[in-house]
Automatic annotation (TrEMBL):
The keyword Glycoprotein does not apply. Belongs to the GTP cyclohydrolase I family. This is GTP cyclohydrolase 1. PANTHER family: GTP CYCLOHYDROLASE 1, GTP CYCLOHYDROLASE I. Pathway: Cofactor biosynthesis; 7,8-dihydroneopterin triphosphate biosynthesis; 7,8-dihydroneopterin triphosphate from GTP: step 1/1. It catalyses: GTP + H2O = 7,8-dihydroneopterin 3'-triphosphate + formate + H(+). InterPro entries: GTP-CH-I_C/QueF (IPR043133), GTP-CH-I_N (IPR043134), GTP_CycHdrlase_I (IPR001474), GTP_CycHdrlase_I_CS (IPR018234), GTP_CycHdrlase_I_dom (IPR020602). Toroid-shaped homodecamer, composed of two pentamers of five dimers. Homopolymer. Zn(2+) binds at residues 112, 115, 183. Residues 42-219 form the GTP cyclohydrolase I domain. Keywords: GTP-binding, Hydrolase, Metal-binding, Nucleotide-binding, One-carbon metabolism, Zinc.
């Protein structure tokens, strides 16, 4: 996190915090597509194994197409999840708590939509609640719901911030994500350890450089 040091603001940028309601009000399974059956998906997995030159009839690979499809079911379960439902339950007894709430170091893994290869790292999320707070685990669940879809890190960051903004209507949201993309660490340019940092600020975190700096310092643990 050493790369994040200074708040970045001069003048007021346009508010780009909104994301389409379809991103958070329902599952993300596209109603316009015909989903193949499980058997068709397993046949496709078998084709990929044959494509790399494998004998798909050898003992060690007999169950692999099934396992590949089951792994996809798990890794991409976010399509069936509704972010608005995750943030549905809030608590009002906060004894007048009026600062922002920060959860840092939320580990996540996702898959890039270009290569369908994992990228993984940490998310840091703060929001400034108005009267009611959300259960802490729900912030991590929200990250997972969006991360368990094909993503770019920028889109993932914007969706997490946008959903919190739209559903909780806080005074502001700050999201920073840092991740290593295996599509550029184990293939292609092969730069192991390179970290990508993305951020999205709304409300007080966007408008007030001091609040943004306080968030960034707390993320860095200073
Ligand atoms: N902006 C952004 N780019 C990503 C993300 N994940 C992967 N990429 C990039 O997507 C790009 C796809 O580029 P292409 O030139 O179409 O694909 P490629 O030939 O496989 O690219 P190389 O990785 O350079 O070999 C690559 O530069 C990846 O590094 C992401 O989350 N955000
Ligand atoms: Zn990629």
């Amino acid at each position: 996190m050493d790369a994040i040091i200074k708040p970045i603001r001069s003048g007021k940028p346009a508010d780009k915090s909104e994301i389409p309601a379809s991103d958070y009000m329902a599952s993300a399974i596209d109603p316009g597509i015909v989903r193949p059956s499980r058997a068709e998906a397993e046949a496709a997995a078998k084709t990929l194994l044959a494509y790399i030159g494998e004998n798909t009839n050898r003992e060690g690979l007999l169950d692999t197409p099934r396992r590949m499809v089951e792994a996809y079911d798990e890794l991409f379960q976010g399509y069936a999840q509704c972010p608005a439902e995750i943030l549905d339950r809030t608590f009002g007894e906060t004894a007048g708590y009026d600062d922002f709430v920060l959860m840092r170091d939320i580990s996540f893994h996702s898959h890039c939509e270009h290569h369908v290869m994992p990228f993984y790292g940490k998310a840091h999320i703060a929001y400034a609640p108005v009267d009611r707070v959300v259960g802490l685990s729900k912030l991590a669940r929200l990250v997972d719901a969006f991360a368990h879809r094909l993503q770019t890190q920028e889109h993932l960051t914007a969706q997490v911030a946008g959903a919190i903004n739209a559903i909780l209507k806080p005074r502001g949201v700050a999201v920073v994500m840092e991740a290593e993309h295996t599509c550029m660490s184990v293939r292609g340019i092969a730069k192991k350890g390179a970290l990508t940092l993305t951020s999205r600020f709304t409300g007080i975190f966007q408008d007030n450089p001091e609040e943004q700096a306080r968030f960034l310092n707390m993320v860095r643990g200073v």
